[in-house]
Each structure stands twice: as C-alpha cells, then as structure tokens.
Amino acid sequence: MSIFTKAKVQQASQALKNARRIAIVSHFNPDGDAVGSSLALYHFFKNSGYDVTAVLANPFPQFLSWMPLSNEIVISDFEKERAFDALLNADVLFVVDMNAPHRSGVVLEAPIRDSRAFKILIDHHILPDIDCNVMFSTPKTTSTCELVYQFIDKISGKEDKMTKEIASCIFVGMITDTGSLSYACNSPLTYSIISKLMKKGVDAEHIHRCIYDNYEVSRFKLLGLCLSQRLSLIWNCSTSYMYLTKKDLADNDYKIGDTEGFVNYGLSLKGIQFTAFFTERDNRIRISFRSKGNFDVSSFAREHFNGGGHKNASAAYYNGTLEDAIAFFREKVALYQNVLDPKNFE
C-alpha cells in the first residue's frame, strides 16, 4: 500500500495553497540524500513561485557542491539568524531524510520543534519520532529522494513539473544511498523512477564522475591509513571495524566528506557480516554501522548506542574516549556471537 494516500496528499496540497513561505531542513552531517532531497524540493517550490529556504546545520561534502543551486542552501553554522528565521517563520516546513528533530544537530533542534509551521515529514528511516501534520515515511525505499520524486508527482497532479535540475538532485540521493545501486535497491519502482529521471535529461555518467571521481588527496591518505593500520577483525563474530583519531584527521588535512563510505570497505571482506567505523571528534565519537543479510544494525545501534537508521546501515554517537567506544563495541558484539557465528554464513 502506498504511503501517498489521497487524504495525506490533499492535506499537504491544502497547506501549500495557503502558504507563502516554505522551509526545508535535513540532518546534521548531510549526505547525498539529504542534500538531494532538500534541493529537489527547493527547486520545485522556487519554480512554483514560493519564498523557499533550504537549511542545513553544517556544510556538506565538496563533491556535492556542483549540484544546481547548492550555493543557496543556508548553513546555520555560518548564518544562524537566517536559518532560525526560515524555520520559525515558515508557513510550511518540510523535514526530510531524518526521523527526529535532534538528528538536525543541537542548534536546529529547538527551532524545528518550536516552529508553528504546517510540518510535512518525508523520510525513509524507521520509527519516526517527530510531531508532524503529515508524514510520508517508510523504510521500504532506496532513499528519501525516491519519496520526494513520488511526492512531487502526486502534488503536481496532471502537471509535469519535473525539471532536469530536480531530476538530477533526486538521482544523486538514490545513487548515493544505495552505493550506486548495489544495495537496498530491489524494487521495480526504483528502476521505473530512474528511467523517468533519465528521460528528463539526467546525465548519469557525469553525475557519477562528479561524486565518485572528485575526491581530495586527503581522502586517499586517510583511506590508506585506515586499511593499512586501523583495521581490526573479530573473526568469531564475523565482524570488522576501523577507526580514525583526531590526530589522524588533522595530520592528513581532513575535509568534510573525506571519510564518506569508508565503513563499506570493512564489509567487503570475505566472511564479514558486520562492520563499524569510528571517527574521533572533539567531544564524542561518531560511529557508522553496516551489515549484510538479516543482522539488524539499526536495532544494534538503538539498543546499545542510542542511535538508529536502517536495517543494514545505521549510525550513532558515543560520549567518551575512542578507546572506550571501541571496547564497548567489542563487548556488545560478543553478545551476538551465536547470531554472527561464521558457521552461519558458510
């Protein structure tokens, strides 16, 4: 059953008819799906004549800076007052690619909660925990961008308002959230939407080059360090993990987005079903989790680290030292030895 019911679409349409100012907000440390879904809606409503603002808490990776009108996104790290004004004074507020206000970061959480706007959630994470008037939410999709495509299609009615720019932004989210269609992409609808995006003029080869052939030297230095010196294996639990310290990041001129996708390397090892990647920050440790098959890393992250995400891809933070975070992780992984026993995957 589609989440885009007639009643929900009508509610959203009515709210938009009465609106003048629209704001769009997504999660902290934005990725391709966050930026893509935000920009797709930004283009759509800008083209429709609304006063629209897209807000993100902190800068996005440079390999996404080519995206059309990405320079118009308001980054609250640099323009806090403008970001607050957009969220608090919007008539309609779109919350995209995050399932709870705190996912936007400590600065934007309060204005999202306090906004009196008509709130619309478009998201693909499990267990949404946010007070919205209308929620288009399901984990049974590749990405939030795929849902944004369906939202625009439904809200436009018989009109075709899908431009090449909007289609390109949606394509970015669908590709980056599936590892270039290598996981979470078994639905025929996904490929039907991609076909329609291509018909709008999306240049898939160009986008792939912009995202995956556009890295900084610092990324390669950090990746080499991870693979050669920061990789550990827990063979009896089919688990691997890697880490980077603050010193590692500083010594190798870390730039935002440099470590995107590093966690997936740990999962590409033969016999590994579960992997984690730890990054040491100033006041806490960021952890990314990935898995294959039926091991639910969202449940693992939620139960042990107050994190969450998807069944095979999730994230969390640990308040403490890197050493303690890794020790805690190893302790909790041991609890799943029966589930992650290598014999189960032979």
- Basic shape: globular
Largest sheet: 6 strands, parallel
The tally of beta strands, per DSSP, is 12
Helix percent band: 25-40%
How far apart, in Å, are the first and last alpha carbons?
36 Å
- Please give the CATH architecture of the largest domain: Alpha-Beta Complex
Beta fraction? 15-25%
Coarse structural class = alpha/beta
CATH class wording of the largest domain: Alpha Beta
SSE series: HEHEEHEHEEHHHHHEEHHEEHEEH
Low-confidence stretches: none
- Rg for CA atoms: 20 Å
DSSP helix count? Answer: 13
CATH superfamily of the largest domain: inorganic pyrophosphatase (n-terminal core)
- How is the CATH topology of the largest domain named? inorganic pyrophosphatase (n-terminal core)
What are the defining features of this structure?
2 domains; inorganic pyrophosphatase (n-terminal core); 6-stranded parallel beta sheet; 13 helices; 17% strand; single chain
Characterization of the model:
This protein has 346 residues and is α/β, with parallel strands linked by helices. The chain folds into two domains: 6-211, inorganic pyrophosphatase (n-terminal core), CATH 3.90.1640; 217-345, Diaminopimelate Epimerase, Chain A, domain 1 (Roll). The chain is 40% helix and 17% strand. Strands 3-2-1-4-5-6 form a six-stranded parallel sheet, sandwiched between helices. Helix 2 links the parallel strand 1 (21-25) and strand 2 (51-56). Helix 2 (32-47) runs parallel beside helix 5, helix 5 packs antiparallel against helix 6 and helix 6 (164-176) packs antiparallel against helix 7 (188-199). The longest helix is centred in the N-terminal third of the chain and has 16 residues, at 32-47. The mean pLDDT is 95.
